[in-house]
Amino acid sequence: MKITLSGNLLRFSKFQREIDVAAPTVAEGLTRLCGDMPQLRPVLLDADGHLRKVHRLFVNRDQLMNDELARTVGADDEVMILTAIAGG
Amino acid sequence: MMGEGAGARRSRGVTEVESGEGDSAAPRLQPPGAGSLIASLVPPEIAHEVRARFGAFMRDRIDPGAAERDRTATPISRELLREAGALGLLGFTVPAIAGGAGRSWREWGWVLHEVGYLSGDTSFPLLLAYLGTLSKMLFDTGRDDLIQRYVRPMVAGHRFGGFAWSEGHDPFTFQTTVEETPSGYVIDGVKGPIADGLIADVFMVFARDRRTDDLMTVLVERDDPGVSLTPYPATGLRASGMARLHLDRVPLSRGRVLVSADGLSYGQRFLNERRLEMPCWALGRMRALLETGVAELAERIRYGLPLTEMQTIQAAIGRMHTGIETSRMVLDSVLSRIGDGLHDPLWDPPLALAKYHVIREALGMCRTLQDILGGAAVFQAAPYERAIRDLSCLNAIAGTMLTLEVDLGILTVGDVELRRLPTRKRNDERKGEP
Q: Which residue range forms the structural domain that includes residue B122?
């Protein structure tokens, strides 16, 4: 799958916007992404390894809820993560 | 209700009443009657309820002393907030089982609007909205220990909560930390500004777990050992009790943990709701300012004419009126959305848009008032100077206007990219066709 990051997530991927990840499911893809880019892990995942609720995750055009991340994906699928966070 | 006795004057349907002492320089407004020419989307039963139940309290208890509190950055007293609690203003959306009124978000939004319109102290509706959301968040934990210890007293106005999120960094780089100990936790750091820090008894604090690096949410009480507060007054909203919270290795029991993981998302809920509450009461203040301003302009003579007879002034008034009415329409739409449960509880684009639109109009209105009122807009004796400073502060609350633009921009770009995705795929597939 190709994972696309944007906005305030980019500084945690050294401004790499598109990352190819080989994994059979979205959840495993996120785990591998965070393994390759450890600085993304605390931003994307909470202490229990779950995707933080502030992120919106899409596979192609479908938005997935946090309990749907076991969805299987292929090499051509595009995963987009959008984040809006307030306050500082 | 105050009558038109000594010190009262009437112009163009707005009665200004000057009191005998204290804040006498600031005219008070009475709401327009049924014959108002200005369209109103505010449910009349809510406007009537607010005036009947809370109007006298704001006129007789909140407004006197507002200018002095602003001048000295003195918080609205706990005694006044206790009275607000007794009137039912601190638990409007909290279910009756915890002592609240159990009313809807839509009703609460319009109540805040009317309070913003009637109250001469802008910090008052700010505190009502802020304290109400904290009580509701604690109620929604479902924990009876928290409901008994905090929610019930907060709704009654005997205890007050504070939201300790900000540190001056984005939440990924918060420096305040929580460390687990054999008996519980220890929290260390500095949080602030906190809108009601000098008033609050208990703080909802967001701090980084030293073990996991994740954000936790814990409750810290003002009397806990190692807690201290320092005033942190701003340009406006100076009666809210703005402060910084210093946490010097404060020990906490395990029961003080609200959220052990993903406090980042938990905190967004408060900020999300604040982006709707704030424009509700700000719009009420804008409406009061417009009416006061028009009344004043009608009495000022230039080149032999009242200023309100000049087309350039009429156009400016029309712009401000348009800003108020479009803001009211935006709020009506978003309050319906939240009432129907259609909103994203963590970061809802229409809620962000509500803050963005209303506060942009408020800031524009401040500038227009300064342009057309001249000196009257800058002297403390007039009713505009303090309100302009108060409204100017709203840029920064619950996501600065610039941050909201960035976030809305990110979501818009993402939305466009998502919509283009199938087309791009089809093009890719075509490349392989003979």
A: 25-160
Q: How many CB pairs under 8 A join A and B?
A: 100
* B195 lies in the same domain as B321: no
CB B162 within 8 A of CB B202: yes
Assigned domain for B46 exists: yes
Helices B311-339, B105-118: crossing angle, 10 deg rounding? 150
User: What backbone phi and psi angles, to 5 degrees, belong to A47?
Assistant: -60, -25
Domain containing A31 — which CATH number? 3.10.20.30
Residue B11 lies in a domain: no
Are B34 and B67 part of one and the same domain?
Answer: yes
Contact B399 A78 (CB under 8 A): no
d(CA B230, CA B205) in angstroms, rounded, equals: 16
Tell if the CB–CB gap between A54 and B169 is shorter than 8 Å: no
Q: How far is A15 from chain B (nearest CA, A)?
A: 15
Mean pLDDT for the stretch of residues B341-352: 90
Q: CA B193 to CA B234: how far, in whole Å?
A: 9
Q: Once rounded to an integer, what is the mean pLDDT over residues B315-341?
A: 93
Q: What does the alpha-carbon distance between residue B172 and residue A83 come to, in Å, rounded to a whole number?
A: 13
What pairs with residue B185 in β-bridges?
Answer: B180, B252
Please spell the DSSP secondary structure of B211-263, one letter per residue. TT--EEEEEEETTSTTEEEEE---SS-TTS--EEEEEEEEEE-GGGEEESS-H
Split into its structural domains, chain B has a count of 3
Residues 11-70 of A with CB under 8 A from B: 12, 42-43, 46-48, 50, 52-54, 56, 58, 60-61
Together in a domain, B274 and B407:
yes
pTM of this structure: 0.85
pLDDT tens-digit series, residues B132-142:
999 999 999 99
Q: B274 and B380 in one domain? A: yes
Contact partners, residue B86, CB within 8 Å, separation at least 6: B156, B157
| Domain limits for position A26 | 2-83
Q: Which two tokens stand for residue B222?
A: 């003002």
Q: What is the pLDDT of residues B91-130, one digit of tens each?
A: 999 999 999 999 999 999 999 999 999 999 999 999 999 9
Same domain? B398 vs B324:
yes
CATH number at residue B246: 2.40.110.10
The predicted pLDDT at position B37 comes to: 54
| Sequential DSSP letters for B178-196 | EEEETTEEEEEEEEEEETT
Same domain, B239 and B136: no
- Phi first, then psi, for residue B157 (nearest 5°) are 85, 20
Residue of B nearest to A12 (CA): B172
